Write the structure tokens for this entry.
Amino acid sequence: MVIAFKQKILISLIIVAGVIYVLLTATIYKKSQNELLENSYSMLLEVIGMDMHKRLTDSAIPFYYFPIPKDTTTQIAVQKEGHPTVYIEKTDSIRQLSFTEKQNYVFQSVLFYENPICVNTLDSLFQVELHRKKIKAQTVILYTDNTEGKTYYSTPDSLSYMHFSALPKINLGIEEEITLQAFLKISFPTIIRHAQPFVIYITLVWLIVMVILLFLFLKKDYRIKIMPTVYSETIKYKITDNILLDTVKSIIVYNSTEIELTLQIARFLEILLQSPDKFVTYEKLIEILYGGAEKGGLDRLN
């Protein structure tokens, strides 16, 4: 029965469609995860600014600032009441900062000594902001004091973040006294929800393709042909050197001459040739040829 080729093609197409669906879904999942990490990084920058202003308010440090239209100086002067003025060389990275960014860098440097960052508080603020944006994630924040080379973690288990996704490092202060880095493990439902429009679209397309392929696979094909049985060689019995019995064609071949026989006679001769000593009783012949139950079998046989 000729069916295998078409079904093999359909099965192959179903497998290929499944593989493509898995690959596309994995790609969309990864893209969604990366977008959420980028959004989380922007939130972290906002949280750091909020935390800085809160610490500045709590410290009640008097300060004033004003922009200089043409700032040609090579140093930044930081003056603190009761302390000598500190001059910091302007690097190219500092020159490229906006006035607000420079101001925040100075504030972070001052607060580094007066009211430093509490990494646990910063992590809590970060969690609140993530929750507000409906991002469920586990977080760990690392705070590195670059002046002493010490690192502090927002969680007692410093190894818990090893399999988290790392956000870019953030350097704070005029002399980059502080380095912050957050690690996130965004929940699977959050990533799927963020990717939901694309996942639904891909899933619908995949389901439509699968239904079409399954319909073609299960559809009865009336064009399937039943091929006749072909024997590799005919069944022949050699009676003498020049006489052969061909039971498939029901013929006697005598010196290359074919003599046609009825099916019944060909079967009769075949039974005799297959039996020991070419001998078969009347009863056996009648049983084989006519089923034994038929009345008058002997007369037919004679």
About this structure: The two ends are 43 Å apart (CA to CA).
